[in-house]
Write a structure and sequence with these properties.
This protein has 206 residues and is an alpha+beta fold. It has two domains: 48 residues, no CATH class; 144 residues, no CATH class. It is built from nine helices and nine strands. The strands form three sheets. A four-stranded mixed beta sheet has the order 4-5-7-6. A three-stranded antiparallel beta sheet has the order 1-3-2. Helix 8 packs antiparallel against helix 9. The chain is elongated. It starts with 10 loop residues before the first strand and ends with a helix.
């Protein structure tokens, strides 16, 4: 069996790679050759993808995002687009972390990580499972929206909030109406940011 066929997924870490190479006396030399031949591509130290000519289908940028820098969860623009809350396609994978802000420019695109206070970190997260049984951590729609607003410093009135939601982000009123209001209210009690009250009032009027 080809060594690449021993790795079941397009995205994998150093442990999975070493497990596939366990029969080799000098696995590090084999890794060097695989990298040189572009049969595997290093995203960062310890995180790899199968080479573009050898992959088994579509890469999961979401799984890569969780693997690259942790603990982290996908949120902000990428999550909003994933849930269909904003109309634009978002190629940059945006995530939240408790650690320092980080950026990875990889062969699969750009991955950005924004730092948030750890007391805000754990609420409103979801584990999204893929068909192959693996999964990734992403903010719920409500949490992704609040994360986006968290980093905005220029919303000082309900009018400005409405302009930001409907003109800047281009979120449809129907999409806001479908958010879980009870859960959103719970999140608001954790964040305690004044501008979020303008969001709550905007949604209540829909």
């Amino acid at each position: 069996m080809d060594i690449i066929d021993k790795i079941p997924y397009n995205e994998f870490d150093h442990l999975a790679l070493m497990n596939a190479l366990r029969s080799y006396n000098h696995p590090k030399d084999k890794i060097t050759k695989l990298l040189r031949d572009k049969r595997i591509i290093q995203i960062k130290r310890g995180v790899y993808i199968q080479g573009f000519e050898h992959n088994k289908g579509v890469y999961s940028k979401e799984i890569i995002s969780n693997m690259l820098y942790g603990p982290s969860y996908i949120s902000l623009e990428y999550a909003l687009a994933y849930y269909g809350l904003i109309p634009e396609r978002v190629d940059v994978v945006t995530s939240i972390t408790m650690k320092r802000r980080k950026e990875y420019n990889t062969p699969l695109g750009l991955f950005l990580y924004f730092a948030i206070n750890k007391k805000f970190y754990s609420i409103g997260l979801d584990y999204i499972r893929l068909q192959d049984g693996r999964g990734f951590i992403m903010a719920t729609p409500e949490r992704a929206l609040l994360d986006k607003l968290y980093f905005e410093k220029c919303i000082n009135s309900q009018k400005e909030m409405q302009a930001y939601l409907f003109e800047n982000l281009r979120i449809e009123e129907s999409a806001l109406k479908n958010l879980n209001r009870a859960f959103l209210k719970e999140l608001l009690t954790v964040y305690r940011k004044k501008s979020f009250l303008y969001l709550q009032k905007t949604i209540e009027k829909i």
